[in-house]
Design brief:
Shape: globular
Number of helices: 5
Structural class: alpha+beta
Number of domains: 2
Radius of gyration: 20 Å
Order of helices and strands: EEEEEEEEHHHHH
Length: 237
């Protein structure tokens, strides 16, 4: 597996995990499995980085043929998403999707479970679509990193997803860049003031760019179900 660690520590500092790490994997949309890691380079991995690891999954009989080369799987500690793995090789034949299967790999982009505390399901779905849209805007260069972070914070709160590592990252970016003119507020700033602040904006966005873009990619993938669901309703109408 190629393991990418995205989460920060609870105090906002970079997190590091070493061989012996035991998170859980989203083996199926309805099943999480414990996993044991041995990192190939022996150094482990830090927030924002990735490293190849040999992984042992528990109870593989509970999710046969659930893996294939190139599959990407969410990694969590308890209810908190902390990273993502990409499957590079499968040694246990029980886990490998059959090459002769008559069906395509199972669809992993399914609707997320509605979190506890959500009272208005339709509004929750709408905000999930906004998360997808804001992440895609960042990836396609329509908005900057700081503006994206400020948009993500309330959306994460409203969808009860603010403990996920991607939203923790955007919250850290927002906290660090508080007061910098990004987005619509720039129209109220004098040109000479913007010139000075833009130096700080560029420095901050350069520092966070790699992690922010990686987080946006994961959010686009994770929330794509919301767009599919909307398209299905349109077709039915």
């Amino acid at each position: 597996m190629n393991f990418a660690l995205t989460a920060l520590r609870n105090d906002g500092l970079p997190k590091r995990v070493m061989s012996g790490y035991r998170p859980i994997y989203k083996a199926r949309p309805d099943y999480w499995s414990s996993a044991y890691h041995e990192f190939v380079d022996g150094k482990g991995v830090e927030t924002g980085g990735n490293s190849e690891a040999e992984v042992w999954l528990l109870t593989p009989q509970a999710y046969p043929q659930a893996f294939w080369i190139g599959r990407r799987v969410e990694v969590a500690e308890g209810t908190r998403i902390v990273g993502l793995i990409e499957v590079l090789q499968i040694l246990n034949p029980l886990l490998k999707l059959s090459d002769t299967a008559n069906e395509s790999p199972p669809a992993l982009v399914r609707q997320m479970e509605i979190p506890q505390g959500i009272k208005n399901e339709a509004l929750w779905r709408k905000r999930c679509r906004k998360i997808h849209a804001r992440a895609k805007d960042l990836l396609e260069g329509r908005v900057g990193i700081i503006e994206t972070a400020r948009a993500m914070n309330p959306l994460a709160f409203w969808t009860c997803a603010d403990s996920n590592s991607e939203f923790e990252l955007f919250r850290a970016i927002d906290s660090e860049t508080l007061g910098l003119p990004a987005g619509a507020v720039r129209q109220y700033w004098a040109p000479e003031a913007l010139e000075s602040e833009d130096v700080r904006i560029e420095a901050a966005e350069s520092r966070w760019r790699e992690q922010a873009l990686a987080a946006a990619e994961r959010l686009v993938e994770r929330y794509s179900w919301a767009l599919q669901r909307k398209d299905q309703r349109s077709d039915e109408a």
